[in-house]
Amino acid sequence: xxxxxxxxxxxxxxxxxxxxxxxxxxxxxxxxxxxxxxxxxxxxxxxxxxxxxxxxxxxxxxxxxxxxxxxxxxxxxxxxxxxxxxxxxxxxxxxxxxxxxxxxxxxxxxxxxxxxxxxxxxxxxxxxxxxxxxxxxxxxxxxxxxxxxxxxxxxxxxxxxxxxxxxxxxxxxxxxxxxxxxxxxxxxxxxxxxxxxxxxxxx
Length: 203
Prior knowledge:
9 helices; two-stranded antiparallel ribbon; mainly alpha; single chain; Serine Threonine Protein Phosphatase 5, Tetratricopeptide repeat
């Protein structure tokens, strides 16, 4: 089985629903450690991609690039910028192609992680979205069956969030709060858990 632009459109629709549902939750979590606008950023960004979805080309790379551009137009936040950076990494990898093999997903996630890491100047283990993506990439490695892949990716994001909950944040604005962040979910990781569940149809 392969993934096409049709699958991308369906994933965007699910993402819009999830980001509307979690709007207040994400804003609240971000308000504790950040600017309090993460829900706004992701809701606006996902809706912008949904508005662009009908006109997306069959070229997956070009379609993902259009999604990144649509997302960027709605927000200047750091998380929005990182999301767009990840999408652009995937777009570059899939340029000129109309489908992606399921076995490529791990590499695409890893590529997005690396691009976002370079852009954000953060390290793995810092209790950020990078840790979510790293766990997702590792979980997806070697999987070529859709149900198993979707389950693994969604579960990996959720597990990474829980695994780092009791560690202090050492990256970004959250690091200012130091030890107070122990026992708290990183807003970006919380968001990625919701994003992964929505995209894979697991939440």
